């Protein structure tokens, strides 16, 4: 870790404010970025981080405050102006043109021309090969972007930024969908860019990564600046306290419950090439964690159990009722609910209201003469919005405008409104802040204490170990271990996840 640089900042915002109608997104925000530094920007969902980044990127214009770049006052009105100044934003899920090649994506809109004005494809390819060599990335410049992993897509965006000679790179939740190896590669590239004298911003809810990578950290809360410190001069507990304005004393508030009868019984579930011979049980009052590395088949099993994806053989039974394959409506009637991994694409209709999203799976129960009014939607949605403390101006608020944590609460409310017996929840706290994580964990624990069965899929081992009564571990489409709460450790879960050695297990029947 490098010592934070001193001297004049390359980019600085002072007392920046931004409002959208009556909603105040930024009140008094300050950020100073120095060349040759990796600067963490942290805060709860809704703290104003994204709004601040969008002002830097030229998507929004500030209402007040100062914006200095290279010591001069600037006011970007378009993203093109921000990019031209040398600022690049790399988002969690880049938006490349899937049908174009890697090279064409990097040079989109600025292709070099040769004789007679023709695009010089040779020069483009040579430049891309040079960029990839510099980044230590092995990728075919001629392959299409379609099918590339998120990690490779991010590397393309970084290569594009370097080709534009970007001096400021902002990485917004870049590791959320990456494996450990991909994260290591990204960090190597980030450190190399820092050592070239560029200023990097790293936005993440993963404190282990923040403290491993960054030199400086700025904390925001409720749209306002809280503090900036050298990473070496602070610690995760202090940062959390500043982020939420209170201490989070119990991130995993697990309640002791009496485990009851089997609710979900999965036997011999097999989908060739995806997963094989999956058998487990979830009982009333029990939280069962499903762990494993990215690509192990965890989400695919969940989707098959709920009937979204087909499977060739095996059975799914809920409270004694056999659930037919590939029929989500039958799974719902039996008492299953699925909160998917990708809440934005699979869990919500982003252009619809909070009320409409919350009631989207219970329309039959609130319809009168086949019609559903907005009033009926809101009356049914309000109890869940209040219980889950969704931070929205009204139930008519568009779901896509909410923070990630509040979107997750809406998805949870939607499925809890069905009064399920078993809740399957995939990556319950991915991309949400530590305060909301604690709230989600408390909710899951409360639901289990009330007799619900919970199957929780998570890539965060502390979450699995902190919340699960039993841990099922998957490796390459198979369950390799079932470990009781008392015996589960990061070491034996990872051994089973990598199948590096035999792990004692007693598979649930």
Q: Could you explain the architecture of this structure?
A:
The chain has 509 residues and is an alpha/beta fold. It is built from 18 helices and 20 strands. The strands form four sheets. A six-stranded mixed sheet has the order 6-7-8-3-9-10, with helices on both faces. It has a six-stranded mixed sheet with strand order 16-17-18-13-19-20, sandwiched between helices. The radius of gyration is 24 Å and the shape is globular. It is a peripheral membrane protein. GO terms for molecular function: ATP binding; ATP hydrolysis activity. It is found in: Cell membrane.
Layout of strands and helices, then pairs:
Elements lengths: L10 E10 L2 E11 L3 E6 L6 H8 L7 E6 L2 E2 L5 H6 L2 E4 L11 H5 L14 H15 L14 H14 L4 E5 L7 H16 L3 E5 L3 H7 L2 E6 L2 E7 L5 H9 L17 E10 L3 E9 L3 E6 L5 H9 L6 E6 L2 E2 L5 H7 L1 E4 L3 H5 L6 H5 L4 H4 L7 H14 L16 H13 L5 E5 L7 H16 L3 E5 L3 H7 L2 E6 L2 E7 L5 H9 L11
Parallel strand pairs: 3-8, 3-9, 6-7, 7-8, 13-18, 13-19, 16-17, 17-18
Antiparallel strand pairs: 1-2, 1-4, 4-5, 9-10, 11-12, 11-14, 14-15, 19-20
Give the gist of this structure.
The protein has 18 helices and 20 strands. The chain is α/β, with parallel strands linked by helices and 509 residues long. The radius of gyration is 24 Å and the shape is globular.
Give the beta-strand count.
Answer: 20
The residue-averaged pLDDT reads: 88
Instruction: Look up the CATH topology of the largest domain.
Output: Rossmann fold
Derived from helix and strand composition plus strand pairing, the structural class reads alpha/beta
CA(first)-CA(last) distance? 49 Å
Helical residue percent?
A: 25-40%
Q: Could you name the ranges where pLDDT drops below 50 across 5 or more consecutive residues?
A: 501-509
Total domain modules: 3
CATH superfamily of the largest domain: P-loop containing nucleotide triphosphate hydrolases
Biggest pleated sheet: 6 strands, mixed
Radius of gyration, whole Å: 24 Å
- Binned strand content: 15-25%
In the CATH hierarchy, what is the class of the largest domain? Alpha Beta
| Sheet with the most strands: spatial strand order | 6-7-8-3-9-10
- The number of helical segments is 18
Shape: globular
- So, CATH architecture of the largest domain? 3-Layer(aba) Sandwich
Keywords: ATP-binding, Cell membrane, Membrane, Nucleotide-binding, Repeat, Sugar transport, Translocase, Transport
InterPro entries: AAA+_ATPase, ABC_carbohydrate_import_ATPase, ABC_transporter-like_ATP-bd, ABC_transporter-like_CS, P-loop_NTPase
Region (Disordered): 490-509
Main location: membrane
